[in-house]
Write a structure and sequence with these properties.
By secondary structure, this protein is an alpha/beta fold. It has helices spanning 16-27, 39-51, 66-80, 103-131, 143-147, 153-172, 199-206, 213-218, 224-234, 274-285, and strands at 7-10, 31-36, 56-60, 85-88, 135-140, 178-185, 246-250, 253-256. It has a domain at 7-187 and 223-256: NAD(P)-binding Rossmann-like Domain (Rossmann fold), CATH 3.40.50.720. The protein contains ten helices and eight strands. It has an eight-stranded mixed β-sheet with strand order 3-2-1-4-5-6-7-8, with helices on both faces. The longest helix is centred in the middle third of the chain and has 29 residues, at 103-131. This is 3-oxoacyl-[acyl-carrier protein] reductase.
């Protein structure tokens, strides 16, 4: 098994995508520390991994505080003897438009996604560097962090911040043999289940049927298991040369996202004054302005929700 002898932590792994990641890591031979805020959910996740013949332990605690990060790492080391892989998946949503978003809405999402990723990675890296055997840090991003999304100021900020941290960590951890990457999953989740555009795909999964090719191929939208293979790969020795990357995966599609680069570079002797920009913008710059938000093709007729 490709991860035989490895030990992984997966935050937010009681259900959904996180559980799929934990189960796949276990299938490939890793011992796994699962995490959830609900004790029964965590216990069920451990039982599901043990039913696969894997080894698992749990930490029931909210991600964000340093104390939780320390507990996760201590559990990995005390239970399984080491730590090789960290997957930072835990997250919450508090969606609303900017002018209705409260301080609590903003702080809750930032604390779990962004601060939780920071505190957990910091603690894991302390252990990995002390052990001197390298390691794998796999952070979970989102298309929203790459392109923005209506009603998700807090979530977009957190996911974009995670990408920025990952690129920095790839530089800082290189000498220690620790890789750091961000995975951008596109899959049927509790969140996408409420979006009418994805209704046919979600219904197919609920019915235990294959998702239509339009969703799997054209949209790169699939199941949690479609993402889990990439997580296991990035945790393996086969991915030792992969670091600082943002990799999208869903359905039949895998994408390596570009790092931000200038779309246009122009020079003007003396600098760009107000008057110069007014004159030059329409002809020189307007055509290279970048789009925002996700853009989806029109749904084929057979997948359109019935009119109410």
């Amino acid at each position: 098994m490709s991860l035989d002898g490895k030990v992984a932590i997966v935050t937010g792994s009681g259900r959904g995508l996180g559980l799929a990641y934990a189960q796949e890591l276990a299938r490939q031979g890793a011992s796994v520390v699962v995490n959830d805020v609900d004790a029964q959910t965590a216990a069920d996740a451990v039982a599901s991994i043990q039913a696969l013949g894997g080894r698992a332990a749990s930490v029931v605690a909210p991600v964000g505080p340093t104390e939780t990060a320390k507990q996760l790492v201590a559990t990995a080391v005390e239970t399984f003897g080491r730590l090789d892989i960290l997957v930072t998946n835990a997250g919450v949503l508090r969606d609303t438009v900017l002018w209705k978003m409260s301080d609590e809405d903003f702080d809750t999402v930032i604390n779990v996604h962004l601060r939780g990723t920071f505190t957990t990675v910091r603690e894991a890296v302390l252990q990995m560097r002390a052990a001197g055997e390298g390691g794998r840090v796999i952070c979970i991003g989102s298309p929203t962090g790459q392109r923005g999304n209506f009603g998700q100021t807090n979530y977009a900020a957190a996911k974009a911040g995670i990408v920025g941290m990952t690129r920095t960590w790839a530089l800082e951890l290189k000498r220690a043999g620790i890789t750091a990457n961000t995975v951008v999953p596109v899959a049927a989740t509790a969140m996408t289940a409420t979006v009418p555009y994805f209704a046919a795909a979600v219904q197919a999964e609920t019915n235990g049927e294959p998702m239509p090719a339009f969703f799997r191929h054209d949209l790169g939208f699939g199941t949690a298991d479609d993402v889990a293979g990439l997580i296991a790969f990035l945790g393996s020795d086969a991915a030792a040369g992969v670091t600082g990357q943002v990799i999208g995966v869903g359905g039949d599609r895998l994408q390596i996202w570009t790092h931000p680069e200038a779309a246009l570079t122009a020079y003007r002797e003396g600098g760009w004054t107000y008057d110069a920009l007014v004159d030059a913008w329409p002809a020189e710059f307007a055509g290279t302005m970048q789009s925002v938000g996700e853009r989806f093709p029109e749904l084929p007729e057979e997948f359109k929700p019935a009119a109410s």
